[in-house]
């Protein structure tokens, strides 16, 4: 629902192993799948925000790709390599605010309205007043943001809309259990390889090839962990500072900070975004999404695992031939 399970958009030979062969969970660079990377600056009232985009292709319409919650533009890496070899187009995969390598002044504002405006602003910053034909493609949360962007007419050259693996009815039903799911995830990882391995074995990402390139967009090094020497100096600094406090809470606070730092040293990677803290925006992403999608006056496509996943509004729309 939030993008916590990434679909296998392309059959991957890296998922097929001969008996006894050990799977490789080491990360691979984005440059194996995208041709270039750019940080797009967007002016706003409080200064500048910087949005990370990954690009491929030089001709044809632009496929603007929006990832699911907790993921990043790198979740589209395998898709990009597959589609660019088959279709003459340009790929622009965007790290939405609060995700990946995008840096904004207010990363906690993940409302549908704000993120939809971000998409429009990035398009304007990249292409000016004469953008090329653009098709919005979004997965899960990104699909919802694509619909909000299209319905608000924030991309003037929009030629089509594709929403993947998101239905209002199913998404709204899943919200109640999402916090339990998030609490069940590990909070830290020993290494990037460990994060990739967990993502595959837990089923969060079902394509090993995609996991190896995209997990680096989901996790980051814990703050303050740069090297064993750096970690040691931080711990010593905390101890020295705590020793100046009044006795009583001194030893308790010192032990707690030492324990926290030891945990970070043993597990130096954590999630880039705390999805649990975005709960207040979930309803706004998905409520009314089906009718909003159906009312967009452009060619549109809904990709789901099966028609049984359609909610009432989409079922009626399908019967009326609206999609």
From TrEMBL:
Task: Spell out the Acidic residues composition-biased ranges.
Answer: 239-249
So what EC number does this one have?
3.1.1.-
Keywords of the record, alphabetical order, are: Hydrolase, Serine esterase
List the biased-composition ranges (Basic and acidic residues).
252-264
Q: Which InterPro entries would you find in this protein's record?
A: AB_hydrolase_1, AB_hydrolase_fold, PPase_methylesterase_euk
Catalyses: [phosphatase 2A protein]-C-terminal L-leucine methyl ester + H2O = [phosphatase 2A protein]-C-terminal L-leucine + methanol + H(+)
Top-level class of the enzyme under EC nomenclature: hydrolase
Q: Which stretches does the entry tag as region Disordered?
A: 239-264
- Gene3D superfamilies named in the record: alpha/beta hydrolase (3.40.50.1820)
Q: What are the boundaries of the signal sequence?
A: none
Q: Which residues form the AB hydrolase-1 domain?
A: 63-189
Q: How does it assemble?
A: Binds PPP2CA and PPP2CB.
Q: Which family does it belong to?
A: Belongs to the AB hydrolase superfamily.
Q: What does it do?
A: Demethylates proteins that have been reversibly carboxymethylated. Demethylates PPP2CB (in vitro) and PPP2CA. Binding to PPP2CA displaces the manganese ion and inactivates the enzyme.
What is the name of the protein in this document? Protein phosphatase methylesterase 1
Organism whose genome encodes this protein: Balaenoptera acutorostrata (Common minke whale)
């Amino acid at each position: 629902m939030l993008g916590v399970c990434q679909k296998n958009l392309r059959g991957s030979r890296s998922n097929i192993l001969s008996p006894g062969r050990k799977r490789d969970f080491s990360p691979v660079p984005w440059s194996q799948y995208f041709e270039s990377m750019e940080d797009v600056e967007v002016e706003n009232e409080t200064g500048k925000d910087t949005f990370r985009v990954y690009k491929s292709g030089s001709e044809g319409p632009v496929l603007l790709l929006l990832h699911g919650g907790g993921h990043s533009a790198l979740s589209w890496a395998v898709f990009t390599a597959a589609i660019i070899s088959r279709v003459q187009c340009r790929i622009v995969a965007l790290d939405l605010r609060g995700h990946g390598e995008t840096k904004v002044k207010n990363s906690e504002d993940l409302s549908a309205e704000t993120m939809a405006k971000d998409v429009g602003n990035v398009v304007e910053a990249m292409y000016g007043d004469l953008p090329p034909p653009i098709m919005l493609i979004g997965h899960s949360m990104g699909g919802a943001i694509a619909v909000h962007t299209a319905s608000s007419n924030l991309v003037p050259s929009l030629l089509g809309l594709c929403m993947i693996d998101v239905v209002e009815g199913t998404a709204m039903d899943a919200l109640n259990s999402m916090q339990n799911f998030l609490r069940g995830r590990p909070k830290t990882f020993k290494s990037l390889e460990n994060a990739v391995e967990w993502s595959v074995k837990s089923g969060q990402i079902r394509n090993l090839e995609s996991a190896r390139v995209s997990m680096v967009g989901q996790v980051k090094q814990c703050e303050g962990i740069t090297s064993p020497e750096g970690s040691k100096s931080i711990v010593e600094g905390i101890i020295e500072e705590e020793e100046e406090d009044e006795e009583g809470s001194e030893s308790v606070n010192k032990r707690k900070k030492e324990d926290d730092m030891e945990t970070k040293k043993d597990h130096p990677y954590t999630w880039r975004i705390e999805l649990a803290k975005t709960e207040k925006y979930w309803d706004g992403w998905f409520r009314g999404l089906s009718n909003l999608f159906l009312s967009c006056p452009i060619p549109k496509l809904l990709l789901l695992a099966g028609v049984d996943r359609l909610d009432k509004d989409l079922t009626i729309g399908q019967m009326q031939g609206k999609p």
